[in-house]
TrEMBL record:
It comes from the Bacteria. This is RloB domain-containing protein. Pfam families: RloB. It comes from Faucicola osloensis (Moraxella osloensis).
Length: 244
């Protein structure tokens, strides 16, 4: 009798994708394709969140309105899925203030859609996302302005690089992966407190530079698997996460 080699069936060739777990399905749309998407992708891995529950994308334009439009587009696509589990429970738009002329228009669009029942949230950093990184090292409250050919965002990165080199003996690199794991060496309570305090100071002074709302999204994500999240939107469009 001739021995016949067994070939795997089509079924055995198919790799199972990540499973949707029993907690919120979340969409995070980022303004850039490097620093913030890589950071949140690293957070998902480090905190053992299912990538089927938390999707991160930077595949949109580099301005606030393109972020909002992309977030709305993906959310509406999820509504048309036959599988109810595909619908996103929360949508976050990560934007930088920097020098974008359409910042306010994009914020108004988020408010408009949220008033129409979309679970869409505005997570802004002024001047840029790297200010959240800076909060890991210091509570920096002086306004970060543009100088010469450098935007306020460029100068924020310069401030960060000083601290980054001290802590990690290397220059900060926007494209570096595993930034969340690297920064986890610093007690998370430090950046959360620094970020929250500077945001309060900024709001009380009627300004936003420097500040970020990223700390609230971080709290939401790291508690996502264990607690039922509740999000409160303040009149100034700050989001606030409360663990139930």
């Amino acid at each position: 009798m001739v021995n016949q080699s067994r070939r795997p069936t089509n079924r055995s060739l198919v790799r199972k994708g990540p499973k949707v777990e029993d907690y919120d399905r979340v969409l995070i749309v980022c303004e850039d394709s490097k620093s913030s998407p890589k950071y949140f992708e690293d957070l998902i891995r480090s905190e053992r969140l299912s990538s089927a529950n938390v999707r991160v994308t930077g595949d949109c334009g580099s301005d606030p309105m393109s972020v909002v439009d992309k977030a709305i587009e993906i959310y509406e696509e999820s509504l048309n899925e036959t599988n109810l589990a595909a619908k996103y429970d929360q949508v976050f738009c990560l934007v930088d203030r920097d020098k974008h002329p359409n910042f306010s228009s994009a914020l108004n669009k988020v408010n408009q859609y949220r008033n129409n029942g979309y679970p869409i949230h505005w997570v802004a950093s002024d001047p840029c996302f790297e200010y959240w990184y800076l909060c890991h090292f210091t509570q920096y409250t002086k306004e970060i302005v543009s100088t010469g050919n450098n935007s306020s965002g460029d100068n924020c990165v310069k401030l960060l690089n000083i601290e980054w080199k001290k802590a990690f003996n290397e220059n900060y690199d926007k494209g570096k992966s595993k930034s969340y794991e690297l920064l986890k060496n610093i007690d998370i309570k430090i950046p959360l407190a620094n970020s929250q305090n500077t945001l309060k100071i900024a709001i009380s002074n009627g300004v936003t530079n420097p500040s970020t709302q990223v700390h609230e999204l971080i709290k939401y994500l790291i508690h996502l698997k264990t607690e039922t999240p509740k999000i409160i939107i303040y009149p100034n469009n700050s989001i606030y996460f409360i663990a139930q």
